[in-house]
Design a protein that fits this description.
Helix content of chain B: 55-70%
Oligomer: heterodimer
Radius of gyration of chain B: 45 Å
Shape of chain B: elongated
Number of strands of chain A: 3
Helix content of chain A: 55-70%
Radius of gyration of chain A: 16 Å
Shape of chain A: elongated
Structural class of chain A: alpha+beta
Order of helices and strands of chain A: HEHHEEH
Distance between the termini of chain A: 38 Å
Structural class of chain B: mainly alpha
Strand order of the largest sheet of chain B: 1-2
Number of strands of chain B: 2
Largest sheet of chain A: 3 strands, antiparallel
Order of helices and strands of chain B: HHHHHHEEHHH
Strand order of the largest sheet of chain A: 1-3-2
């Protein structure tokens, strides 16, 4: 369905969202996307639609909670925030991500010991 | 903000174009008759959320110099399939709302229980009185029902018991207990709507023989009684028609309870007259 690169990104979307909210507190959907794009310098592209699907799914699973508020432009927007479960989830995902990165790095290292 | 051309200061046309540009795909509303009010409500919320996003994206692109129309198109393109996203989000939200609703219900229950518990602890005497009243009421009602059920509601333990009738004489007083024998005989000969008729009356006596004399209670019945009620004796036989005549040998059918207490082997009894 999608090429390997995007699939990798989809697997980590949750983690990116959780991390972003952990640092910035409460954001609306566009704010989350903008923050991620800014921090990665545009290297990671998440399809906006996929992001919103992820946001709603994460709320369903209890990692996020949302409430309607007013954005800086004055328009109504839905703001997301981490829950306690969300913080725990972030910790586990970051841990497995580290293990993953370490494993891949070891494979990629040239030569054998 | 003051330079933002899409703000309200720009004039009457702007709000319309905003709606047309960002919302075009969503106005192609596939709301069929299948949509429940819940789905519609959630759908509207997701619509608003997506609209906001597209607006913000378009504005950011405009700020970087892209012309408005192109910015809107680019925002739509970057979003991907709006309808599909909306579907997924609405489904997710529905499940979530259901779960929240259930949780709230249980929480409410827990709160009520906690409140009740606190009330109980504070007013022991009230609770004791109420409990006593309830217990008495429930006990009385249960007992009453038990009796009514056994006597009135439950069918008699005979086959086809709904076809058994008790006959009353209405002169001089309505009574089932004082049916005149002569009337009974007349009835038995003349009646055609009954399968059979039998009469019974109370009898008491003393049982002598082995052991100490014992008072026994029983009934005197007309012949054909056992056939009528449909329950033949366990051992031996019922009464024969001729035994109902005067001057015949007197015969007795013993009840099960009596057989048990007076003899080791029930068989002994059936042999005796």
């Amino acid at each position: 369905m999608k090429d390997p690169e995007t699939q990798l990104v989809r697997g980590t979307v949750h983690m990116l969202i959780l991390r972003t909210l952990a640092e910035e507190g409460s954001l609306h959907g566009y704010g989350i996307v903008a923050s991620i794009e800014e921090r990665t310098g545009g290297a990671l592209g998440i399809e906006d639609g996929a992001l919103y699907q992820a946001l709603h799914r994460m709320q369903e699973r209890g990692w996020l909670e949302s409430e309607w508020g007013h954005a800086e432009t004055g328009k109504r927007a839905r703001f997301y925030r981490l829950t306690r479960k969300g913080r725990a989830r972030l910790a586990t995902e970051e841990a497995s991500w580290s293990r993953y990165v370490e494993a891949v790095t070891r494979v990629l290292r040239p030569g054998r010991p | 903000m003051s330079r933002d051309p899409s703000g309200p200061a720009a004039g009457g046309r702007e709000p319309q174009s905003v709606r047309a540009g960002a919302g075009a795909a969503m106005s192609r509303d596939p709301d069929g008759p299948q949509r429940t009010p819940e789905e519609r409500r959630l759908g509207e919320q997701v619509d608003e959320e997506i609209r906001f996003h597209l607006e913000m994206r378009a504005r950011a692109l405009e700020r970087r110099g892209m012309p408005r129309r192109q910015a809107r198109q680019e925002a739509r393109r970057r979003f991907g399939d709006v309808e599909q996203t909306k579907e997924v989000c609405v489904r997710s939200d529905r499940r979530w709302e259901r779960r929240m609703g259930r949780r709230r219900w249980w929480n409410g229950l827990a709160q009520d229980a906690a409140l009740a518990w606190r009330r109980v602890r504070r007013g022991r005497r009230f609770v004791a009185t109420t409990g006593l009243v309830l217990a008495l009421g429930i006990g009385a009602a249960t007992t009453l029902f038990g009796v009514i059920d056994a006597v009135l509601l439950r069918p008699l333990p005979y086959p086809d018991s709904e076809r058994l009738y008790l006959l009353f004489e209405t002169e001089p007083q309505p009574s089932a207990e004082n049916f005149a024998w002569a009337n009974f005989e007349d009835l038995r000969e003349a009646a055609v709507s009954f399968e059979g008729l039998s009469a019974w009356t109370w009898r008491a006596g003393t049982l002598t023989g082995r052991g100490s004399p014992q008072r026994v209670e029983g009934r005197a019945v007309s012949p054909g009684f056992f056939e009528l009620i449909g329950v033949p004796p366990l051992l031996g036989r019922g009464f024969r028609t001729e035994e109902g005549q005067e001057g015949q040998e007197r015969v007795v059918v013993l009840g099960h309870a009596l057989c048990g207490t007076r003899s080791a082997a029930p068989r002994t009894w059936s042999a005796e007259p």
